[in-house]
């Protein structure tokens, strides 16, 4: 590596052309003397082999004092986030305790116990129950929106929108200014929706706008937009003029100047805020990409937050200071840094100690965080908190301290930068330039590869796939895990990682043979291996895990380390189990359905064969046809009958029970047998249908049916007939066909008592009568009258002569029928001799 120093202090930002970059941590030992932090972090850190690095290093192991420092900082940061989240929810719990004190007439201690008891009985957390109690007791707009959003929350890890809105209200109203309200809205209510910045605008009488408070923007950006003159069209100005919510899905769609347009780079929503019909300001929310789809429920949440903005602006004064003073770089330095095409950040010392502690005060629009964090999350954070590995010997912190102390610019064309991403060490080479500008230090770098993008992809891939990486040094027996593995094993981040030779002890007894085969292939045969097993955690939870690993050889081809990954496949396993059970249940259901359909067909064939030869009853020839449905699940209750009665008359009938399946078939059997028994009384067709209607209504289970019933007197060649909601018979005489005039008659089984009309027709030798069910003529694309007309035309074209003319007639109707409903069909043909 090479570094250069100018002979005298200066203020310079110099960098050659090249790729873009990152923040990190290693400086050549030939540079200025290391400070006290270098001595503190003197422990060994094995980062990567010598030479350039194109991404995550193979066999990267973090050890020594610096590794412990980085791990401690990461753990403390997580604990701080948890403490902040707990503190935010505490206000909601305290308000809920107050509600119980008032309702139960008890003290605060007893009310807190009751809240805990009610939460246990309801199977929820105290925070969720507290949010519900507060929303129920309140009558404001935030509570109304919260109740609707709580019902739509499905993520078990999410405390609920109602909790977030109530936390927002509590923090905003307890703050001292609009800036506190903006921060509360962003952290509690808007960041879960993907937003990265929020601005609260105050409307002035002269039609200008003032930035009353903001969060997520840099200090320099907020200062530039402190005042918007009249006539400047912005998203906020449009929302005020139109008195409605304004939404831009992309920056190109907006085509108007907006705060943070180049920082957030995404869409935004501006919601007018006011009290009593008077607009006092605007709430503007920014996203890094497109905003979420604005449903009615989401719009109500934005309006609730706008109402909170209006309440804040009622007490806002333009002359009042906006929170505590925030230090930042001079405007000239900020403009200079923002004009650079390479990532650059400005550091400021925050104490008079030596060496001082540095805080990140500004980052230009080209800034890209190595760990994939948004810029707004880093500005204002101490350098060592954001990048612990900068403190390593010869790292970036030492260069910053030297430049701040001496004023001499520092440049290194190939500094090795390092950062921890989810516990995995990533390194890259970069050109780094550090220079002092007054009391501030500017750090500019350009990476030699696309490591930031790779780091973000790695982080999100691990999170989405629930994948945890590991590496085990077989010589030192040191094991490195990332944070995901500790979560999979149910261990705290401070626990010792579990070595591969102990893996079988944590597996289910039935899976230990598979784990042994995996280890034998990996360690003895030295080949990549994978297996799946059930992990038994110390907390009693069993997870289904897939592990993939490969051996790592040194220069002498000896096995030196093992690296690999664990993946939680529990959801996939249980999904496969559920699918297998569903398939078994579906197969059983299909088998049962097939058996039912088979029984239905056997029942129908036993009572009504699909076809039967002509039957001679005195001077009447009778032929029948039955065509079942093509699909088994459509097997229905169509039926027919023809028999000679003791009185010498001939009974002919056709019917259709509503529905399909075994119920329709059994109903058909009941009606057919009942009509046979009733016909022996000698009653006429109308009376027979009246009695059959009573049987259908009272003695069957919700069965309805249509039927046509006829009694033929051979002596007089007279056919008396009646119908119950059925299609009329067709008469063919002398080559001309027509439908018999319809008579009144309601469906069977609809009411308990019904009367039916009866008609009669005197037949001649050679006349034919056809009775049928609707499966013969119904079409989806035409009405009933057209279908009947087609049937009449087909009857006229049917064969009229020959010994088997009647059979041929019925076959002709079945063959050329245009019906397309795939329903059962019954035909009964009568011919007078």
Features of the shown structure:
alpha+beta, Beta-Lactamase, 6-stranded antiparallel beta sheet, 4 domains
Kindly summarize this structure in a few lines.
The chain is α+β, with helices and mostly antiparallel strands and 833 residues long. The protein has 24 helices and 28 strands. Strands 1-10-11-12-8-9 form a six-stranded antiparallel β-sheet, with helices on both faces. The chain has a six-stranded antiparallel β-sheet with strand order 4-3-2-7-6-5.
Main sheet summary:
6 strands, antiparallel
The name of the CATH architecture of the largest domain is 4-Layer Sandwich
Overall radius of gyration: 43 Å
Would you identify the regions where 5 or more consecutive residues have pLDDT less than 50? Answer: 1-63, 140-159, 320-326
CATH C-level class of the largest domain: Alpha Beta
Task: Indicate how many domains the architecture comprises.
Answer: 4
Derived from helix and strand composition plus strand pairing, the structural class reads alpha+beta
Quantity of strands, as a count: 28
The CATH topology of the largest domain turns out to be Phosphatase 2c, domain 1
Kindly report the name of the CATH homologous superfamily of the largest domain. Answer: PPM-type phosphatase domain
Give the overall shape, derived from the CA principal axes.
Answer: elongated
Write out the strand line-up for the largest beta sheet, numbering strands in chain order. Answer: 1-10-11-12-8-9
Q: Proportion of β residues? A: 15-25%
Mean model confidence by pLDDT = 78
Name the helicity range: 25-40%
Task: State the helix count.
Answer: 24
Distance between the termini: 118 Å
